[in-house]
């Protein structure tokens, strides 16, 4: 039974990895769009004496959206900052439990953030809130895109947490370590060497 659950969650995780990669790529494209907007803004001020685009407002939205869209990819790559001075000295089973506790804490945090952002988005939409800028952007539009990234992150954290939980139940501590554990220095060095060769 646990093997079937783990197999199903592995397939879901594969989809989450692909989706997270595409969200991160879209966020990267938005960052490049920010560069183009700022370049146009500076050039228009120099050559025309006025702003041709409202780069400050738009880039603020883009930064928030692209950041939220990259959170799940960062999770899947295990790139979040972790303080693991004692962690690597513990046996693998204890590290697996600590990884699960960390994932559950992150899942709870993401659920709280999604709930708070949904409240802000709902209020902005129902109240017809607009930015106090020349563009007068309806705030629900960038907030909805921001919300999508945070929901995807929350979903990814929950799926990884479930896989770690069922992995621990089935005794697959090595799989849990590979999925959610903090990499050792040797693993980090081999990853860097492999990336340098490719």
Question: Could you please describe the fold and organization of this structure?
Answer:
With 198 residues, this protein is mainly alpha-helical. Helices cover 79% and strands 0% of the residues. The protein is built from 6 helices and no strands. It has helices at residues 2-48, 55-76, 92-127, 140-169, 173-180, 185-197. The longest helix is centred in the first third of the chain and has 47 residues, at 2-48. The chain is elongated, with a radius of gyration of 21 Å.
Short description:
The protein contains 6 helices and no strands.
Level of helix content?
over 70%
Structural class: mainly alpha
Report the order of strands and helices. Answer: HHHHHH
Number of strands: 0
What's the main sheet like? none
Give the CA-CA distance, first to last residue.
39 Å
Put simply, the count of helices is: 6
Mean pLDDT: 91
User: Any idea what the shape is?
Assistant: elongated
Poorly predicted runs of 5 or more residues? none
Content of β-strand: under 5%
Radius of gyration: 21 Å
List keywords for this structure.
6 helices, mainly alpha, elongated, single chain, 198 residues
Topology:
Layout: H1 2-48, H2 55-76, H3 92-127, H4 140-169, H5 173-180, H6 185-197
